[in-house]
């Protein structure tokens, strides 16, 4: 059966770097693509660079320059995806299915000129439609586009998923299938909680919270884009036939009322500025230099002021701790703070679920469960559908298990 | 001193794969480019893929497909040059000189759609001029261009040199500097004849004969293009400061009358079709299937016919021998030939020089010198400025030395 280009017969499959890390894996990806084609679907495949290619290219860049130009870095990195798409297209053709590879620019992906973190400004789908109409599987290089001047750009984190979602939106595809090295989204990291269960589906909003707070499957930027265009995304493993997890807007009523997962992140550090005068502009003075240094500040907690003096605590990625301290110390001194202290042995644990919006009491249950396990909560922050606690890294695994159990995540259909 | 873009202040430097095979070599290439820029010249640098990159990419292609699509192969291979130009541009910028890398397409190189051996149809120099006017060193990926549809093409053999010459012609540059791993063009291969001398200059025509007959420095297609646009090309080593050899049209009178070099090629094989009926169309019937199989036939000799039966001998690249025999045997049988025999232990030695055009006697001296050294000549073929003999491979080195001596190539300025 042949379907017209675009619409419900079209699927965008995305294959991450680990799925195409070798010639053998590329042949297996080609087989999966050909099966979808044989099922009567049109396939646009978005492919990332093979395995550690991007890291190797960046290492080369560092060998020739301490501060490589972002435009050159983009063109350099883009070759990784380009190599992968040509090989995937060849492997598909070797199975007797016509295929063509396209770079981001050839696929019509136009972006801003912000090298290293370009935004898609539009997709000119003419070539894509022409190739699909000609009966080709179209294999598109992820993570890249071109500016109006035809300079190559990359999207930064979440790159290839952003390409897949953007193409699905532009082509009005029925589905994005995001093939990666995990079998879907779990109620917790299975390495921390062996009883973690794969979720059948999850809402965009829940996925965004999970992604930020530890799940590495799909960057929040890509999830956000999928939510914006209401593109359903199936997360599944390219190494198995397991059914995966569907990210979409129509989560069943049963699941809406549930807590969906426990996210964990051990790679953080905590910085506390002690004895800060409590006056307007203090927070901006502290965090603006960090932003200028490219450091993302995560959880921020400010104690209630005592005699117009307060303590301000925040977390950063552990790899950013040294630079953060260098940046913050002179500022803190300048504003008359007493001291700056840090702790690189903390971790984040979060409970996530749209169910929280409707039912109170989740936070209390979470704090009680952690206390019962003698886990001290150092900081707390919440969103509408998430509660996050900072705990000692040594207690992270235990915290995940305690919460997984208290919220009954192991079982398929119970409610809290 | 800053000069306007194009014209006499502009030089196109070309760096081959061995010249950019490592980060260290790339930094040294960047230094050479910056020196030229500091001398007040504008520089367009054309760069090949690092070291064995192209071979590695082709090996990957073979791992996923027995017969990779030429379009995909072109896009795949083009990434090798793209990686190299970004690294060279970064290395130049690290030395404080502004630089930008351009793919063949970005540099405006438009080609035919004949993948793997595309021809340049034109160069749109607008972006090149804009970047040069902005004070940038422009680093262009060699070997590649794009079709009207923006599909990436490659030029096949001689690729990056073709890019360099085409850009020099389009930008009206004063000179192409072809940096490679040899110090210039020699009177003979120094591995065969240690007394070989570097030529100060050589004509396009002589260079074409030398290139075909063994010198691997610059493919005849690139030399032909340089001759067509009268672009002078300096061949020099990127590993030394030796002055190199200038390929141009104005060879001095002194040198015009000389024999310039001895070329040698040991990688050939000889095929003889015995007892062929001597009637029209026989040669075409034999050679057309070889051409169809992509096999270049080189020296062809047909014996004088005896009783309307003749022997036909020709040479092919040694790597093509097996396929050639498979192709020729059924054809020869079909035309009633007695037998097909082959010899993979032969080699070619050639004497080259425009001087031959004006002075007879070179051939006689060559044959006499070889005979005096007991070297048997199996086949002979000549052009206006070249005499080629097929000899036993075991006697090739001796043949080169004998001819180098008899034509007095060791000394700078003697005439024959």
Outline:
2 copies of one chain form a homodimer. Helix content of chain A is 34%, strand content 25%.
What can you tell me about this protein's structure?
- The structure is a homodimer of 416-residue chains.
- Chain A is an alpha/beta fold and 416 residues long.
- Chain A has a domain at 7-181: Acetylglutamate kinase-like (Carbamate kinase, 3-Layer(aba) Sandwich), CATH 3.40.1160.
- Chain A is 34% helix and 25% strand.
- Chain A has twelve helices and 20 strands.
- In chain A, the strands form five sheets. An eight-stranded mixed beta sheet of chain A has the order 3-6-2-1-9-11-12-10, with helices on both faces. In chain A, strands 13-18-20-19 form a four-stranded antiparallel beta sheet, sandwiched between helices. In chain A, strands 15-16-14-17 form a four-stranded antiparallel beta sheet, covered by helices on one side.
- In chain A, strand 4 (109-111) and strand 5 (120-123) form a beta hairpin.
- The radius of gyration of chain A is 23 Å and the shape is globular.
- Chain A starts with 9 loop residues before the first strand and ends in a 10-residue tail after the last helix.
- Residues 1-6 of chain A have low confidence and may be disordered.
- The interface between A and B is large, with 42 and 42 residues.
Explain the layout of strands and helices:
Two copies of one chain form a homodimer.
Chain A: E1 10-15, H1 23-38, E2 42-47, H2 53-64, H3 70-94, E3 99-102, E4 109-111, E5 120-123, H4 126-133, E6 137-141, E7 144-146, E8 152-154, H5 159-171, E9 175-180, E10 201-203, H6 204-212, H7 220-228, E11 233-237, E12 245-248, H8 253-256, E13 261-265, E14 268-277, H9 282-292, E15 297-302, E16 309-317, H10 321-334, E17 339-343, E18 346-352, H11 362-372, E19 379-383, E20 386-392, H12 396-406
Parallel strand pairs in A: 1-2, 1-9, 2-6, 3-6, 9-11, 10-12
Antiparallel strand pairs in A: 4-5, 7-8, 11-12, 13-18, 14-16, 14-17, 15-16, 18-20, 19-20
Helix pairs in contact in A: 1-3, 2-3, 5-7, 6-7, 9-10, 11-12
């Amino acid at each position: 059966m042949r379907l017209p280009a675009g619409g419900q017969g079209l699927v965008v499959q995305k294959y991450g770097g680990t799925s195409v890390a070798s010639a053998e894996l590329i042949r297996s990806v080609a087989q999966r693509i050909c099966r979808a084609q044989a099922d009567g679907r049109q396939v646009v495949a978005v492919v990332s660079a093979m395995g550690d290619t991007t890291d190797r290219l960046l290492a080369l860049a560092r060998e020739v320059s301490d501060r490589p130009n972002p435009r050159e870095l983009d063109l350099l990195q883009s070759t990784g995806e380009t190599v992968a798409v040509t090989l995937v297209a060849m492997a598909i053709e070797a199975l007797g299915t016509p295929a063509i590879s396209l770079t981001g620019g050839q696929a019509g992906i136009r972006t801003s000129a912000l090298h290293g973190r370009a935004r898609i400004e539009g997709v000119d789908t003419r070539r894509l439609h022409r190739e699909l109409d000609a009966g080709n599987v179209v294999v598109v290089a992820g993570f890249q586009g071109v500016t109006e001047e035809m300079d190559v750009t990359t999207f930064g984190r979440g790159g290839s998923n952003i390409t897949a979602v953007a193409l699905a939106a532009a082509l009005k595809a029925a589905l994005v299938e995001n093939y990666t090295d995990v079998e879907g989204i779990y109620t917790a990291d299975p390495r921390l909680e062996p009883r973690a269960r794969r979720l059948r589906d999850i809402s965009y909003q829940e996925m965004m919270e999970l992604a930020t707070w530890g799940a590495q499957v799909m960057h929040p930027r890509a999830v956000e884009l999928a939510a914006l265009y209401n593109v359903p995304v199936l997360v599944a493993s390219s190494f198995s036939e397991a059914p995966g997890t569907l990210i979409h807007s129509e989560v069943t009523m049963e699941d809406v009322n549930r807590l969906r997962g426990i996210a964990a992140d051990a790679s953080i550090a905590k910085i506390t500025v002690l004895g800060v005068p409590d006056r307007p502009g203090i927070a901006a003075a502290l965090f603006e230099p960090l932003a200028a240094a490219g450091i993302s500040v995560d959880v921020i907690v400010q104690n209630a002021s005592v005699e117009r003096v307060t303590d301000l605590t925040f977390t950063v990625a552990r790899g950013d701790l040294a630079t953060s301290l260098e940046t913050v110390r002179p500022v803190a001194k300048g504003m008359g703070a007493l001291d700056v202290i840090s702790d690189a042995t903390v971790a984040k644990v979060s409970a996530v679920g749209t169910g929280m919006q409707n039912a109170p009491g989740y936070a209390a249950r979470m704090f009680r469960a952690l206390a019962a396990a003698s886990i001290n909560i150092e900081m707390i922050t919440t969103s509408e559908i998430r509660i996050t606690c900072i705990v000692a890294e040594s207690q992270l695994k235990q915290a995940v298990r305690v919460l997984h159990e208290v919220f009954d995540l192991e079982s398929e259909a119970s409610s809290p």
